[in-house]
Amino acid sequence: MCEYCGCQAVTVIGELTREHDLVVDLIGDARTAHTAGDTETMAVIARRIAEVLGPHTEVEEHGLFPALADEFPEQIAGLEAEHRRVEAVLGEAAGATPADPGWPLRLLDVLNLLRAHILKEQDGVFPAALTGLSTEEWEAVEAVRARVGTRPGVMP
Q1: Are 146 and 7 in contact (CB under 8 A)?
Q2: Which of 134-137's residues contact partners 24+ apart within 8 Å by CB, and which partners?
Q3: Is the pLDDT assigned to residue 44 strictly greater than 50?
Q4: SS3 helix, strand, coil % of the chain, rounded to 5?
Q5: Which of 27, 35, 24, 40 is nearest to 118 (CA)?
């Protein structure tokens, strides 16, 4: 992941990056489970990814993205649309392992999207935020993080 611009030195960006790292690890685990034909484990991993992304997405959509939307409206709208697509497929496993035999491939497809999405945020959104957000906007982002917190298993 990105380490060249220094944005990870900002506490909230460092937290978002650690969440990305955890999700990338979980994506690898889901791929391994798929190779083994283990749909149950894929569903467990989908629920874990959704758990991590819940507060993560709140921080982005209610903190970072509004501060960047005037300058990058199409990019922010695209990222939010990707959030909805990822949430929909992960949500299919919210209560139990989906019975639909097409779900494992839908999950893999959306996890590929999620991996590319993470790179867009790491290489685009985070550096843009570092250079573009005012002190007040950073305080608003931090307030969202304080409100939503993080999920278990994400190191502070």
Answers
A1: no
A2: 134/67, 137/67
A3: yes
A4: 80, 0, 20
A5: 24
pLDDT digits (tens, 9 = 90+) for 80-91: 999 999 999 999
To the nearest 10°, report the CA torsion of 27, 31, 33, 39.
90
Distance of CA 98 to the CA centre of its chain: 22
**Rounded Cα gap, residues 140 and 154, in angstroms:** 22
Structure tokens at 119: 């790179």
**What are the pLDDT digits (tens) for 108-146?**
999 999 999 999 999 999 989 988 899 899 999 999 999
Cα 88 from Cα 110, distance rounded (Å): 9
Tell me the whole-structure pTM to 2 decimals: 0.90
